[in-house]
Write a structure and sequence with these properties.
It is a single chain. Helices cover about 75% and strands about 0% of the residues. By secondary structure, it is mostly helical. It has one domain. The radius of gyration is 21 Å and the shape is globular. The N and C termini lie far apart (about 55 Å).
Length: about 240
């Protein structure tokens, strides 16, 4: 009978490093679990025909005053707080200014989730935009403010290009998260202009859940990117 190889237990330093890793990224992963739970509950509620209207009002991703809206706002608030910490964690100068600008953008996104700034401003601009402002009947803000948002982020990306060598994986993850968020906010949301509540309500509801979930995933990736940059800069400090 052969003898089984006995693998020694990992050194205490390895266990300590792993525990430290989990203590840092565990909450970030937890935010991702929250997105999955919200998406699953909304899908289940739709499949059941929204049997409890009070519950629907609480979790509905299509309503502004709901748990989903609060969660989206909270994700961007966490991203803003981490971006502020990244400003201090990395080298000063251009990188610090980029993270300060990103923190301000993320704060605006957080406020916008609950205050509906872009919808109200978009409607105001569309009312004075003539034919151009009336092209989209449900999401007029996309035409009026979408190009502005893209230009701001592109300009910020170009300004930040010299510092991409610092934690390049974190920067790529940040760009991916913002791209996913904008694709959902500007692209998928625009498809509601092709739908109506009278004959395609179930498709409308499904589109809303899909769009909001993808937006949250984008925000979550931004949170992960900020945290990854902060951890990288802390290690290389």
């Amino acid at each position: 009978m052969g003898t089984k190889a006995i693998h020694p237990a990992p050194p205490a330093t390895v266990r300590a490093a792993w525990d430290a890793h989990l203590s840092v990224v565990g909450p970030v992963y937890g935010l991702g679990v929250g997105i999955a739970v919200l998406c699953a509950t909304n899908m289940l509620n739709l499949m059941m025909g929204q049997p409890f209207w009070t519950l629907t009002q609480i979790i509905n991703m299509g309503l502004e005053s709901s748990l989903a809206t609060w969660y989206s706002s909270m994700l961007w608030a966490v991203a803003a707080a981490l971006a502020w910490r990244c400003r201090a964690a990395g080298p000063q100068g251009r990188a610090a200014r980029v993270w300060l600008a990103l923190a301000a953008v993320f704060v605006f996104f957080s406020i916008d989730e609950v205050a509906m700034v872009h919808e109200r401003l978009g409607r105001l601009l569309a009312d004075h935009g003539g034919t151009y402002g009336q092209l989209l009947h449900t999401t007029r803000w996309v035409l009026m403010l979408g190009p502005v948002a893209i230009l701001v982020l592109v300009a910020l990306a170009l300004y930040a290009s010299p510092v991409y060598a610092q934690a390049p994986c974190a920067w790529r993850l940040l760009a991916t998260g913002l791209a996913i968020f904008l694709a959902a906010a500007l692209g998928i949301e625009s498809t509601t202009n092709l739908l109506n509540h009278s004959t395609l309500q179930w498709i409308w509801d499904l589109e809303i859940v899909t769009e909001e979930t993808i937006e949250m995933i984008g925000a979550w990736l931004v949170v992960e990117a900020c945290d990854a940059y902060r951890r990288d800069r802390t290690v290389h400090a």
